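Hi, here's the filled form for the chain we discussed.

Project: internal
Contact: R.S.
Residues: 422
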Amino acid sequence: MEVRILSRKFDIADAHLLEVAKQHGAYATLDKVFAMPPADVTDEVKNSGLRGRGGAGFPAGLKWSFLPKGVDKPVYLTVNSDESEPATFKDRYILTRDPHLLIEGIIICCYAIGCHDCYIYIRGEYTTQRKALQFAIDEAYAAGYLGEKVAGHDFKLDVTVHRGAGAYVCGEETALLESIEGRKGQPRSKPPFPAVAGLYGCPTIINNVQTIASLPFILANGAAAYKAYGTEKSPGTHLFGISGHVEKPGMYELPLGLPLLEVIEKMAGGVWRGRKLKAVIPGGSSTPVLTPEEAATATLDYESMAAHKTMFGSGGIVVLDETVDVVELTKNLIDFYHHESCGQCTPCREGLGWMLKIVKQLLRGEGTIADIELLRELCDNIEMKTVCVLSAACTMPVRSYLDKFRSEFVAYATDRPKPEQA
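And the returned structure, exactly as it came back:
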C-alpha cells in the first residue's frame, strides 16, 4: 500500500547530508531539466496532474502558467513551510529527512518560471527543521547547486529562509507575503492575485513544501509515471499524517484514492484499545468531520472528500474513538482559531470569540437549546464574510459537529427535555 517517492530517503541514515543524498540520486534531474525549454518543464508538471499539497489542491503547473508574460519585474517563488494546521506534520519530515529533495524541486520550479530568488517561509517554532534546512542550503551553495551558476549551468538562483513568528494566519499566502515584507501578517484582499502582484508587488508563485518536493520525481520519470499512482483527477502520492486514537500513529506515503477506513486499519493499526470509532477528521482541524458511516464510503482523494461535503485538506487524518466529548473538542477547536485570528475582520475577530463564549457556557451547564441554535446561526453568518478563510476554517468543522453530534450539545443544555418528556 505504501509508495516511496517523497519518502524514499526518509529511512536512510544521514540522507539529509548532501554526500549521502547524492549517492541516492539527489540533483540527478538537473542536467535533463536545463536541457529543456522552461515552458516544457511547466508542461510536464501540468501533464502530471500534480495538485497543490498545501490543502487547496489547485493544479501546480496551471498555477505557474498564470504568471504574466513580458513584465519587466523579477519573478519570485515562495515556498510555504508555515505548517500550522493542527494535526498536520508532513512537511517537517521533508525538511529534516530529505531537505535536498526540496532544494532540487525549488531549482526545477525556479527554472520553469524564470525565478532567480526564492524565499522559504518557515514556521517560527520549527527550530530543528530550520537548522536542517539551512544546513542543506549552505551545502548546496558550497557544491554549486545554488548561487551564480546552478549545477554549472547559466542560471542564477538564491534561496533565503524566512522565519515566521508562530502565526497560523501566515499560512494564508498573502499574509505570508506581508510577513516576509516586514509587515503584520494579515491577509490581503484579492485581486490582484500573487501571480500578478505578489512579493514586493512582483509576480509570485507560492507552493507548499510537499508540492515542490514532488517535482524531481516527475521530471526524472515523466508525467505518466507520476499519474500511474492515485486517481485520474487526483494523481500521485501524498504524505498522510495519521494521529489520534490509533495503534500506530505516524507518517505514511500512499497513493491517492485508497479507502479511508482501510488505511486507518491496515496502516495505523485501527482504533486503539479495542474501542469503537466515533469520527474521523480527514484533513486537518479545519475540515468537516466524518461519521463512521461516512468514513466507510470515503476515499483519500479530493473528489471523494468533496462528495462527502468535507475536504482533503493537508492529509492530516485524526481518528476519534468513542470516549471523545465532541463539545469539549469543539471548544478546543474554536479556542485555537479565535486565538489565531489576525483581528482584521470583525466577523472573525468578534464572532469566533462569541462562539467560544457560547460553548464554554454550555460546558459550565449554563447554556440552553437557544444557545445551540445561535451557535449554528453564527457559523452561517461568519463564514466567507472575511478577507481570508480563517473564520471558515473554524465554522465549517464546528457546523459539522453541531449537525452530526447535536445530541451531545443538547445534553449540556439546561432546558433539554427530561427523559420522561423525550
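Let me know if anything looks off before we file it.
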